[in-house]
Amino acid sequence: MEVKTSLLDNMIGVGDMVLLEPLSEDSFIANLRNRFDHNEIYTYIGSVVISMNPYRSLPIFTPEKVEEYRNRNFYELSPHIYALADEAYRSLRDQDKDQCILITGESGAGKTEASKLVMSYVAAVCGKGQEVNKVKEQLLQSNPVLEAFGNAKTVRNDNSSRFGKYMDIEFDFKGDPLGGVISNYLLEKSRVVKQPRGERNFHIFYQLLSGASDDTLKKLKLDRDFSKYNYLSLDSAAVNGLDDAANFRTVRNAMQIVGFMEDEVQSVLELVAAVLKLGNIEFKPESRCNGNDESRIRDKNDLKEMCELLGTEQTVLERAFSYRTVEAKQEKVCTTLNVAQAYYARDALAKNLYSRLFSWLVTRINESIKAAPKSRHKVMGVLDIYGFEIFEENSFEQFIINYCNEKLQQIFIELTLREEQEEYVREGIEWTNIEYFNNAIICDLIENHQNGILAMLDEECLRPGTVTDETFLDKLNTICAEHLHFESRLSKSSKFLTDHSLPHNCFRIQHYAGKVLYRAEGFVDKNNDLLYRDLSQAMYKANHSLMKQLFPEGNPAKVNLKRPPTAGFQFRHSVGTLMRNLQTKNPNYIRCIKPNDKKASHIFTDSLVCHQVRYLGLMENVRVRRAGYAFRQAYEPCLERYKMLCKRTWPHWRGPAREGVEVLMADLTVPAEEFSYGRSKVFIRNPRTLFFLEERRRQCLQDLATLIQKIYRGWKCRSHFLLLKKSQIVVAAWYRRYAQQNKYKRIKSATTVVQSYTRGWQARKLLRELKYQKRCEEAVTTISAYWHGTQARRELRRLKEEARRKHAVAVIWAYWKGLKVRREYRKFFRANAGKKIYNFTIQRIMQKYFLGLKSTMPSMSPIDKSWPVKPYLFLDGVHSELRRIFHLWRCTKYRSEFTEEKKAVFEEKLEASEIFKDKKALYASSVSQPFMGDYLEISKNPKYQKLNSAMDEKVLLADVVNKINRANGKGTARIFLLTKNSVVLADQKTGQVKASVPLPDLTSVSVSTQSDGFFALKLKEGSASAIKGDFLLSSEHLIEIITKLHRTGATAADSEQLNIDISDEFLVQFKHDKVCVKFIQGAPKNGNSVSCKRKNNRLLEVSVPSTV
């Protein structure tokens, strides 16, 4: 059985303010504070939900909570926004009533979050399916897009909606969403060009600069630095807890889900970038010859980039910022704009461009989420609109917002009273008129078509001549002076002449929420919202895909000289349409309250909450609800809750629920004037009566709990006794069984012992008999064995004797036969015995020699000169020949393993041996060093990439050498490159080629006999390479360099054999002079290194250490 619950169960404070007793403003605030301190952020006023912003996450919005409130009565559970959403959804689905949910409150009170919670709840409880889920996802994802373009950070709220939003969600007969339509009201477009201190521009600007990729920003000609854009405030650019980059990715994803094409997204971002660029355009004054001042653009770079984004000509837009064309009938007048007017035109274009882009976004979203035009749809409207605003300085925006709230308060009171009256009539209860403050007089003051403030403001804007905010205020003082809710220092009413809290340029209106002081400055300009026709036409000429849709009035073919409607007129028309729409639907209200101005959790500021309670008219709402009957409840739940208070209805009432309630009320002696019976509900007039019933119920529940405890304890004791009795019988039965089992085991054990003793005696007797019989059998066997053994030994001795006799006969016969053969062949053996013995001996010696040579064979290395010692002198020739044959075979095997590269290396080594062996002391140390050729890895080293690319031929050798300077004998590092046709010297650091010598120009190479690395390249006289003379170089790989030079020169077809001159003294040609290079041996100096010194103009002396 399902357990019934109620709003009144476990209630913290009072869950429904209608039941608050006593009712006062202080008790109202105290009840809100008490519930807020216990994390109860929702409170009812009848069917109205009061929502306190907790400024933190609470575990009350989980999927489990959604299921808990699904299909439950409104008052069945504790107050929650899900209860209101479920009530509205079930009324729409089951009763076919169109619904609207009105969410109001000031900025930062949580209106946007409340609308999200309502939409998420409806999305969770409605039907499923691929198409339905797609519609739900599109409806939910429209929020991030509109928040990015329509929300901003303010001093009161980090995500404040700066526009009013009304969404109609359309459902089919099953309650599944089909689509929706969004309407937007009064975007605060002045924020685009100027933000109050501590606030930001719209989110999309910061999200774009923070989250877009570098390629995207490059295409949009933007930079990530916020400080480079005049329209972005810097003091609040970064907001704690707000990740602009992540939010930008969310917005891009949401636009994709809603149905925006990629080119549409790019077009929108281009317009956002154009607005930023537009803010950077600055103007400078320029005097004309007629004395008038005109404006000129200071830096045209931003204008150029903006024109590239919009696809318009720079000259067209530049002229639109400098001139204004006014058309009147058939005449056109062109006037110049001064700097102030140019800035006004720039800001007006920015505001219009952004606001029209926002309206296009709303229209585009509506195209994606609209339902198919079939049969009639059920509609649920959700209104998220700015609350009443009272700032230190209030202007035209606050006046328009407060006018909208006045209309909402008016329709709230009217619909609430109408709902009360309809319920009373439906239930058959007599209706009594309720006195309340009707704010229709304030609405009339603002919207009256003849003498209303908006009408006079429009009249001033359309009036020819000089029109200023002062003339508008004078008109108000003249016409509205006698109005009870209008105050001004300059009006005819003398009571405000000395009111110093009312400045001369201001007027005050007494709204339903309190008095608000408005500064008249800016009213006329903001109401005009004028965009020069030149700018509209310039925008229409742009090639951007959205411009012609955003600025249709700029079409030259459709020039309309009629003045466009004012902002006040448009808003009044929109509000009127909204009010008519709301009056056709069943209203549901959510009143959002901000607990503090610090945006912090657990802080409740009484004065701030009291101010919001007043201007939301919540006390008025409670009084309206309590003017008749404070509480009403259907008969069935009422009887179910209070039936234990009467013996006749407890525990079960068998008749109709209404009769049961009548019996219950009669038994409790509740005064008849305190309640009334409707058709389906009982109405209780005073909350004290309800609390009396609740107190009686609490006492009765305590008595019932005591009775239940008593019955339970008796049942528990009886059950325990019966369990003990049953257990005793079981224990006794088990014990008797155990005793009998033990007695049987003792008798069985005794019988087993007696049996074992008897069987043992019989077994021992049988064993003795068997042992005796066995001893007799063993004695017979032993005697027989000894007899047979004696007989066998005798026979064996006889057989052995007979065998010895036969063997003796055979031996004697063999000796006699041998003697006979030797006597017959003796004469033949004496003639050939010596030669056979010699041949046999020689054969055995050779066999032994070859077997010994096999085991002592030297290694396969060709340089291994070891060979076994010859054992006999007569084998000397054979021993030497075998050594020669083995060495030749070993060399053949070694050469067969050579690769072409290795063969070339050995050929170079062989040629080096032919050139330098026994001629140069450095040769001995170079034998063991392999010739590597490319010591610099020039093809792999990125440092020499430029030098490698300059070489057309394969590099045979690359090494670092020192080029000797004839002036001082010191060396300079150079890169030495050898190819098939030339020798190249290049700078080691830069890789620049210093000299390139073709091999045919080389005549000889001179080196010393010492262990130094010096060598001279001598060039052919008269050749192009010999202009600067010969080269004197030094290298650690001298042997390899000269060997490769010699081999390369020998293989070149057009060159002669390169001469190698090895001498300790040779001449080197330096330009026009010949210098003698002389090598001497000296004592080791400077770490055993070779040193070169200039002795005179004709002698360079190279000192080589004698130890090297």
Q: What portion of residues belong to β-strands? A: 15-25%
Please give the order of strands in the largest beta sheet.
23-22-21-20-26-25-24-27
User: What is the global morphology?
Assistant: flat
Arithmetic mean of pLDDT: 83
Report, as a whole number of angstroms, the end-to-end distance. 112 Å
Binned, the helix content reads 40-55%
Topology record:
Elements: H1 25-37, E1 42-45, E2 48-52, H2 63-69, H3 81-95, E3 99-104, H4 111-125, H5 130-150, E4 151-152, E5 160-161, E6 164-171, E7 177-185, H6 203-211, H7 214-220, H8 244-258, H9 262-279, E8 283-287, E9 293-297, H10 301-310, H11 314-322, E10 323-328, E11 331-336, H12 339-369, E12 378-384, H13 396-427, H14 440-447, H15 453-462, H16 469-479, E13 486-487, E14 506-511, E15 514-519, H17 523-528, H18 533-540, H19 547-550, H20 567-583, E16 586-593, H21 606-615, H22 618-626, E17 631-634, H23 635-642, H24 657-667, E18 675-677, E19 681-684, H25 687-855, H26 876-896, H27 900-916, H28 923-926, H29 945-950, E20 957-964, E21 971-978, E22 982-987, E23 993-998, E24 1002-1007, E25 1014-1019, E26 1031-1034, H30 1038-1051, E27 1059-1062, E28 1065-1070, E29 1073-1082, E30 1091-1096, E31 1099-1105
Parallel strand pairs: 2-16, 3-12, 3-16, 24-27, 29-31
Antiparallel strand pairs: 1-2, 4-5, 6-7, 6-12, 8-9, 10-11, 13-14, 14-15, 17-19, 18-19, 20-21, 20-26, 21-22, 22-23, 24-25, 25-26, 28-29, 30-31
Helix pairs in contact: 1-21, 3-4, 4-5, 5-6, 5-8, 5-12, 6-8, 9-10, 9-12, 11-18, 13-14, 13-20, 15-16, 23-24, 27-30
